[in-house]
Amino acid sequence: MVDLSLLSKAIEEGNCDKAVQLTTEALGGGTNPQDIITHGLQSGMGVVGGKFSSGEYFLPDMLMAARAMTTALELLKPLLEKTGMPTIGRVVIGTVEGDMHDIGKNIVATFLKGSGFEVFDLGTSVPDKKFIDEVRERKPDILGLSALLTTTMPVMGRVIKALDVTGLRSGVKVIVGGAPVTQNYANHIGADAYAHDGGKAVPVCKQLLGE
Ligand code: B1M
């Protein structure tokens, strides 16, 4: 059984090879992929964020940690996505304009795919108009908006307003999330739902579909 605190440490140190090795060993030892994410990868990223805030880490440290985490996540993706179940709903998801953070959004997208949702991931720094166009064309049941910066959180409200103005709001449920986002903030900007993490996003999205 791999000690997931070692994996957390590998992410903290931005050690890509070690992160891949420990993730592979953890999977081989039967550790649940969700536990690997929560107690290994994500907890290491939490430490990185703290060290960046306190001035101990700089941008290159965050980038190395992000690379290590993204590479390790790639090993988990096929396991999380492999379900073979019928599609239960369609989701368009993206990180809002001005925001390049995508690791958490990718986890949410992967969890949703693994639970039977058809997911269209628009990527990062998605212009408001792109969200509107995709909602109009793809007619998703749910639009997912992710924001990691306090400066980009308001953009989620802007997208919701744009849905209103274009007459699309009533046809789509909006879920928001990201580290600085809260349930109160989601209510404040008129979102239909908020999820704290990828695991929570699945039942919340099912609930939005009335399941
Ligand atoms: Co940035 N960054 N970053 N960063 N970065 C934060 C967010 C920060 C908190 C770090 C800090 O200061 N402690 C800080 C924001 C401060 C603030 O706004 N108050 C910050 C800053 C300041 C910046 C820059 C401005 C730095 C600079 O340039 N001086 C810059 C901004 C660039 C931009 O976006 N325009 C920047 C850049 C970067 C990197 C590119 C180096 C890299 C991102 C790489 C990438 O994403 N591909 C990076 C990273 C890695 C971080 C931290 C360390 C980690 C983020 C992460 O991936 N976490 C982060 C500190 C932190 O969050 N502790 C930080 C792991 C991930 C699994 O968690 O993303 O929270 P998270 O996702 C979770 C939940 O939030 C939720 O589920 C996910 C999975 O469980 N969730 C949703 C997310 N989206 C959801 C959507 C949903 C539902 C749930 O529904 C749709």
Question: What do these coordinates show?
Answer:
- The protein has 211 residues and is an alpha/beta fold.
- It has nine helices and five strands.
- Strands 2-1-3-4-5 form a five-stranded parallel β-sheet, sandwiched between helices.
- α4 packs parallel to α5, α5 packs across α9 and α6 crosses α7.
- The longest helix is centred in the N-terminal third of the chain and has 23 residues.
- The radius of gyration is 17 Å and the shape is globular.
- The mean pLDDT is 95.
- CO-5-methoxybenzimidazolylcobamide binds next to α3, α4, α5, β3 and β4.
Rounded mean pLDDT is: 95
Question: What is the alpha-carbon Rg in Å?
Answer: 17 Å
What is the terminal separation in angstroms? 36 Å
Named once each, the bound ligands are: CO-5-methoxybenzimidazolylcobamide
- Summarize the biggest pleated sheet: 5 strands, parallel
Approximately how much beta-strand content do the residues carry? Answer: 5-15%
Quaternary state, please? Answer: single chain
Structural class: alpha/beta
Number of helices: 9
Shape label:
globular
Order of helices and strands: HHHHEHEHEHEHEH
Number of strands: 5
Helix share, percent: 55-70%
The strand line-up of the biggest sheet is: 2-1-3-4-5
User: Low-confidence stretches at least 5 residues in length (pLDDT < 50)?
Assistant: none
Summarize the entry for a quick read:
With 211 residues, this protein is of the alpha/beta class. Helix content is 56%, strand content 11%.
